[in-house]
Amino acid sequence: MKIDRRLLMHFDWVLLLLLILIGAMSVLNLYSATYPIRNAGGTQIFMKQIYWFLMGFGVLLMMTMFDYHHLLRLAYPAYFFSVALLILVLLIGDVRSGSQRWLHLGGFTFQPSEMVKITLIILLAKFYQDRNQIHEFRLRDLWQPFAFIAIPCLLIIKEPDLGTALTILIVSFSVILFAKLKWRSLAILVVGSLSAAPFLWSMLKEYQQRRILIFLNPEMDPLGAGYHINQSKIAIGSGMLWGKGFLKGTQTRLHFLPEQHTDFAFSVLAEEWGFMGAAVLFTLYLGLIFWGLNIAKNSKDKFGAFIAIGLVAIVFWQLIINVCMATGLMPVVGIPLVLLSYGGSSIISIMAGMGLLMNISMRRFMFQ
Question: Please, are residues 290 and 308 in contact by the beta-carbon 8 Å criterion?
Fold first, then answer.
C-alpha cells in the first residue's frame, strides 16, 4: 500500500502522546491494584493490560492507513454485523457473575457491546452526512437513528449490562444534539424521557433498582449493596492532597475496594496519588477531549465531524459517569473508566476509535 507522504507530515503526535501517557498511568495503576499480598501471581492482569495496549496501538495505526470516507460504504454492514454479534452473545455467550456479555471465539474472549459503540457512531455520522441539506432536525426526521440506537440498547440490557446501554444511549444523543435538533423537538424528547421513567424502572432487575436506592441512601445497607460506594469514598478521601504513596494504599492493599482493577480503578489512583494525581489524570483526559473537539471543528465534512464528536463523547461521558460513580455522586452502574480500567475489548475498541480520530485529523488538509 502506497502512503501519501503528506499524511506522514500531518501525523497527529499530540493525540498519540496523550494516549501513551494515559496508557502508562493505566498500567502503573493496575500494577498497584493487582499487586500480590503474598507473592502470588498478582501481576497477571497488569501484564495483560500491557499486551492489550500494544495491540491497541497497532490497531490505531491500522485505522490511519485508509481514507475514512470509505466507511460511508461500510457503515450499515459494520453496524448490522455488530448487532448480529450481540444476538450471538444472548445465544451462546459466556455467563459470568450472572451476566451474559462475552463471546469466546478462536481463543479470544471479547464484548461485542464495545464494538457497537464505534459502529453506531459511524452509522449516525453517515445518516447526517446523507442529510447534509437539513439544518435543523425534527423528531419525525430522526425515527431511523432512534431505531438504530434502540436495537443494540435493548439487546445489551437483556444481557444484562445497564452501564454499557446507558453509555451508548448518552453518547448517541450527544451526536443527535450536535446535529441541531429543533428546540420544540428537544423539549418533547426531554418530557417524553421523563414520562418513561416509571416504565424504565419496572424494566430494571431487582439488584439494579437496589443500587439506585442505595445511591440515594448509602447507609441503608452499608455492608451489602452500599459497600462499594462507602469503600470507594473512604479510599478517595484518605488520599487527601498527595496520596499515601505507590503500593501503600490501605483500602487497595487489603482489598476492601471491590472491582478495584475495573469499575473502581480511579479510587485506587486517588488513594495512592491523592488530589494531585487525580488532577494530572483529569488534565490528560481534558487534553484528549479538547484535542478531539478541535479535530471535529477542523474536519472538512460533516461525516468526519460527527465521528469525531461521537468518539469524544465516549471518553467524556465514561469519564464523568465513572468518577461520579466512584465518588458517590451517581449510582454504581458498572461503567469502567475508559483507558484506565482493565479490559481488552474496551481498550481495542477505544484505540480503534482514536485511530479514526487521528485519521480525520491527518486528512483534514486533503480538502483545502
Answer: no
Which residue's entry shows cell 438504530?
A: 148
Burial of 139 (0-12, 13-18, 19+ CB in 10 A): middle
Q: Is 327 exposed, middle or buried (CB count within 10 Å of its CB: 0-12, 13-18, 19+)?
A: middle
Contacts of 164 (CB under 8 A, 6+ apart): 111, 113, 114, 117, 156, 334, 335
pLDDT values of the chain reduced to their tens digit, one per residue, 368 residues:
455 666 677 889 999 999 999 999 999 999 998 886 444 444 578 888 999 999 999 999 999 989 999 999 999 999 999 999 999 999 988 877 777 888 887 777 889 999 999 999 999 999 999 887 777 788 888 889 999 999 999 999 888 888 899 999 999 999 988 887 777 877 887 787 777 777 777 767 776 677 777 666 666 666 665 777 888 999 999 999 999 999 888 888 888 887 888 889 999 999 999 999 999 999 999 999 999 999 999 998 999 999 999 999 999 999 999 999 999 888 888 889 999 999 889 999 999 999 999 999 998 776 44
Q: Which amino acid, 276? A: M
| Best CA proximity match to 323, nearest among 282, 268, 266, 238 | 266
Q: How far apart are the C-alpha atoms of 239 and 271, rounded to whole Å?
A: 4
pTM for this predicted structure: 0.91
